[in-house]
Amino acid sequence: MNFNKITEADIESLIEILDSDRVTLKEDISEDYSHDELAELRVYPELIVEPENTEEVAQIMKFASNRNIPVTPRGSGTGLCGGAVAMEGGILLLTTSMDEIIEIDEENLTASVQPGVILMNFAEKVNDLGFMYPPDPGEKSATLGGNVLTNAGGMRAVKYGVTRDYVLGMEIVLPNGEIINTGGKVVKNSSGYSIQDLMIGSEGTLGIVTEITLKLVPMPKKALTLLIPFDSLEEAIGTVPEIINAKIVPTGIEFMEKEVLLAATDYLGKEFPDTSAPAYLLLKFDGNDKKEIEKQYEVAADVCLANNAYDVYIANTDERQDVIWDTRGALLEALKAVSELDECDVVVPRNRVADFVNFTHRLEDKHNLRIRGFGHAGDGNLHLYTLKDDLDDQTWQQRNKAVMGELYAKSREMKGKVSGEHGIAIAKKEYLHEDIGPMQLELMRGIKNTFDPQNILNPGKTV
Length: 463
Fold this sequence. Notes:
CATH class of one domain: Alpha Beta
Organism: Halanaerobium saccharolyticum
Shape: globular
Keywords: FAD, Flavoprotein, Oxidoreductase
Strand order of the largest sheet: 15-12-14-13-17-18-16
Radius of gyration: 23 Å
Cofactor: FAD
Pfam families: FAD-oxidase_C, FAD_binding_4
Distance between the termini: 14 Å
Helix content: 25-40%
CATH topology of one domain: Uridine Diphospho-n-acetylenolpyruvylglucosamine Reductase, domain 3
Number of strands: 18
Number of helices: 14
GO molecular function, one term: FAD binding
Largest sheet: 7 strands, antiparallel
């Protein structure tokens, strides 16, 4: 890819569009902006810009298009696949200053936001008004723009779905600087090809989203959580299809192992209700009818006990539930605190999750590499982490590559997919290409070329 390097004249032009306080030169760029959470991939941009509105983003993209300079959009940098890394240098465009909640429309149950709004802040704001934004990925410091561009899922996906299900409209700046609008506050739309759906999950390769219209739902009045210990992870996950077949719909069904749980409790410095069992399921139920919720959790409890659960602990206060779900949300950070790691978030049919977990245990022995996992048992999305521990770099890279190759191959064999919610970017590109085959890859490349014929927007990612 032959891009132009940034010159002094380019810097002056960008300062005219913004101002000197929102343009950071290479020598002043923090190391944090050379990587995302895929820590081993480090590339510095030549320049950082921080626009505050759509018009500034459009001017930056027109300038970059005219000068053939690559642009990489970046939110909080919490991605796990290298999506926010400026692989070709150029301009790193931060959306974090575009952090306004523009409107919460209580009559239409919608919210309009800029892409730099932090998920946690947004969720608190709408909760205070009696509403809920259902997507609930583990990384609460991520931006809503980042969530949209990776189609983030999370721990409520079993009942409520993923980010795509809550995006009603967008304002988008295309790579040439043109601005388009899709959707809006309408709840139905069958008006031609869905540019909006192409944008969701595109990881910043097709356009820069500058405003998002999101669907809200009324906040459920009641919620409770079941913590269910099992003798093995295989028994725990093997119970999930029976829970689903019992015709109940939990808000979420999560799984975790004792070793990872203990790491999280140490990391948070919090006591957990029970840490004695080798493996656990977490089930959450919510709704407005207390009796209906109780009926559902009693059915779930009976299914689990019939499948050799040690016990069923009921957390029915906000404090108890917060401890459990805060711990679940800290599992990844706890693993990162003890070892360098790599991640795989394959998704497989729900009834194959237990088989896949068994397969990872065999891989551990085969390659002598620790693999730890947790994830969304209710939707088949596994979060698997290979741990470097005290291995030297060469041994780590060799073993890790071998394990990753087998994990993705097993996912294909089980009719699964490369990523459930973390995206592709750099880290999973070769596995995506193997998974979708040459015809589908060519179609994706055609879409990229239509939106971005110069390939200046987040080049080197996905396709």
